[in-house]
């Protein structure tokens, strides 16, 4: 069992999809430079977890018997009915490629990237 911190969600920009006016859902998660898990067609309910600038969950990638797995765990107490969210940690982009963030957190960075 090996464990290391890696993994981020993949932004629309990273897959050359929409602009900020056309923010279509992307269901990909980058494990590392060479490996992406694509949940566009199928996957568990976790693929619907949204980004937040004040997340209540964190993601980690672990390798179990040579297979990469994404682990999502809470990083603070979560109230009943509260939406689960984590920080997608998108790479920063210049102004014309920004994706607006709608997480609604008090400390929202206003952009997802
Ligand atoms: C993994 S999907 C999350 C589920 C998606 N919201 C849905 O309804 O199917 C990721 C996509 O959701 C949208 N999204 C997630 N968090 C967001 C946020 N805080 N602000 C704006 N769009 C967000 C973006 O389009 C992103 O590419």
UniProtKB/TrEMBL annotation:
Give TM regions. none
In terms of domain of life, where is this protein from? Eukaryota
Note the PROSITE patterns from the entry. POST_SET (PS50868), SET (PS50280)
Q: State the GO CC annotations.
A: nBAF complex
> Signal peptide: which range, if any?
none
Its keywords, alphabetically, are:
Chromatin regulator, Metal-binding, Methyltransferase, Nucleus, Repeat, S-adenosyl-L-methionine, Transcription, Transcription regulation, Transferase, Zinc, Zinc-finger
Positions of the Post-SET domain: 97-113
- Where is it predominantly found? nucleus
Would I find Lipoprotein among this entry's keywords?
Answer: no
Q: Does the keyword Repeat apply?
A: yes
Q: Which GO terms describe its biological process?
A: chromatin organization; methylation; nervous system development
Q: Which Pfam families match?
A: SET
Intracellular or extracellular location(s): Nucleus
Looking up SMART domains in the UniProt record yields:
PostSET, SET
Q: Which GO terms describe its molecular function?
A: methyltransferase activity; zinc ion binding
Q: Report the residue ranges that make up the SET domain in this protein.
A: 1-89
Task: Report what the protein is called.
Answer: SET domain-containing protein
Organism this protein belongs to: Neolamprologus brichardi
Lineage runs:
Eukaryota, Metazoa, Chordata, Craniata, Vertebrata
């Amino acid at each position: 069992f090996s464990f290391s911190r890696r993994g981020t969600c993949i932004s629309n920009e990273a897959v050359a999809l929409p602009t900020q006016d056309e923010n279509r859902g992307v269901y990909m998660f980058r494990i590392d430079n060479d490996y992406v898990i694509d949940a566009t067609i199928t996957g568990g309910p976790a693929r619907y977890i949204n980004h937040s600038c004040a997340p209540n969950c964190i993601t980690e990638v672990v390798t179990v018997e040579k297979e990469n797995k994404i682990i999502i765990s809470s990083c603070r107490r979560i109230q009943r009915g509260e939406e689960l969210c984590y920080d997608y940690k998108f790479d920063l982009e210049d102004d014309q490629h920004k994706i607006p963030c709608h997480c609604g957190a008090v400390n929202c960075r206003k952009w997802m990237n």
